[in-house]
Structure formats: C-alpha cells, structure tokens
Write a structure and sequence with these properties.
Strand content: 5-15%
Strand order of the largest sheet: 2-1-3-4-5
Number of helices: 9
Structural class: alpha/beta
Order of helices and strands: EHEHEHHEHEHHHH
Shape: rod-shaped
Amino acid sequence: MPAVPSNQQVPRPQEVFISYSRKNKDFVHRLDDALKSRGREAWVDWEDIRPTEEFMQAIYAAIEGADTFVFVLTPDSVASVPCGHEIAHAAANNKRMVPIVAQDVNADTVPEALAKLEWIFYCRAGDDFEKATDKLISALDTDLKWVHAHTRLLMRAIEWNANGKNNSFVLRGDDLRSAEQWLAQAPTKKEPKPTALQAEYIIASRKAATRRQRITLGAVTFGLVLAIVLAVVAWSKWIEANNNAHEADRQKHEAVKQEAKALAGRNRADGVIDFVQNNLRSFDRAVGSI
C-alpha cells in the first residue's frame, strides 16, 4: 500500500508520480534509480503509513502537481484500494497516465482509465529494463510544454476553487493570454485534455479582466470629465477675475478723473476769490484818495 514519507514535499511541476503496491517496492526502487540516473525526479511514497484522510489529501496534491502519473501494473496494485483511489483522482484531473507492466496481469482486471492506454512492458521474456525505461522517458518527454501548462493551470484552478473562486486568484496579463491560447489549442491535442475546472477558471479570469477594464475605463472617463469641469470652472474664475480687474482699473481711472475735476473747480474758485479781493483793495484805495 502506498504511503507518504514524513519529509516528502508536494512535487513541483515536471515531476512524475509513481503509483504502486508496496508489495512491488523492490521494482519501484530500481525504477526510481533508473529515472534519477536520467535526470528525472519521481515522487514516490516509501513509508507504510495508515491511509488517513490527511494522508490521502497529500497523495492527491502530489498527483495534481506531477506532470505524469505512472502506474506500476501488477496483480497486487490492480487489487489495491488506495491505488484505485489514486487512479480515479488522476483520471478525474485528466493527468497524463503511463501504465508500466512489472508483472503479468489480467487485462480484464485493469481499470478502464489504464486499460485503454499503451502499456510499457518490463516483465516479458526478452524485455530489457533499460530499454523499457528509455521508452518511458520518451513518453514523459512528449508534448512537454503542453503538459507543463496543463499541470500549472490545474494547480492554479484548484487553488482558485479551494478559495471560493475569489478573483484575487484569477489569471492576469500574459498569464491569462497564454492560458487562453493553451485552451484554444485543446482540440488539436490528444492528451491530456483540459478539465472542466481549468476551462471555467480561464473563462472566469477573462470575465474578471473585462470587469477590471470597464472599471478602469469608467475611472479614466470620470477623471477626464472631472478635469474638463475643473478646467471650465478655472477658466470662468479667470474670466471673472480679469473682468473684476478691468472694472477696478476703470473705477480707479474714474476716481482720478473726478478728483482732477474737483481740483480744477477748486482752482477756479480760488482764482475768482483772488480777483475779487484784489479789486476790492483797488476800490478801497481809490475811495481813500477822494
């Protein structure tokens, strides 16, 4: 029965998840060593831990984070209930699945998700372990870019779904455009197909981006209208201030003009008074001489 090692991390994309019965542990050790010698890192659970709910969640997360689900076909693994759960989870998430035959197995007992695929044989007379592993590597390397994107988008979609489909977890910018291009290519690809959750996630991301664009456009439009209104108000204030300045200058000139008139009037009055006073003095002198 599979188990999770205490120090095992959930795999990064580009890794392999190996599902197997613990009764076939020796074969899986040899397979893991062969993969490592070819620069491949496989996620394998070695320790015998009771399959609790927490245990199964860790296993499911590891399957989701691996590019390829490799199943070691033996009579024991086909009969294993935990292995059956792993197969079902990989199939539900449209993971790329590669069955390898370590022992002769009755094809009728193999789950449909694996039975329909091409098997890689390690157990038949004349099968070479190293050549079979090279064939496995070739299968792992097929359509790598497509498979990497599938894994990455699956993990993002699962995270989005686990957080109540919150828009803070949606795709944006180049990520969104790349995901849309990836989804558009799906009809031309064989495996793995996008899941319904991945498609929903990408569509929801586009809708969220459209809403953000509308909000941004609305904010820009409002800002533009506000700027125009403020410009009109400022222009009106400038016109009003300019008119007030002209009126103040006119009133100032008028005041100066009136003051000049008043001064001229005073000057004329002073001249008349001086004339009368001078004449009176002349008259007084004339009378005195008589």
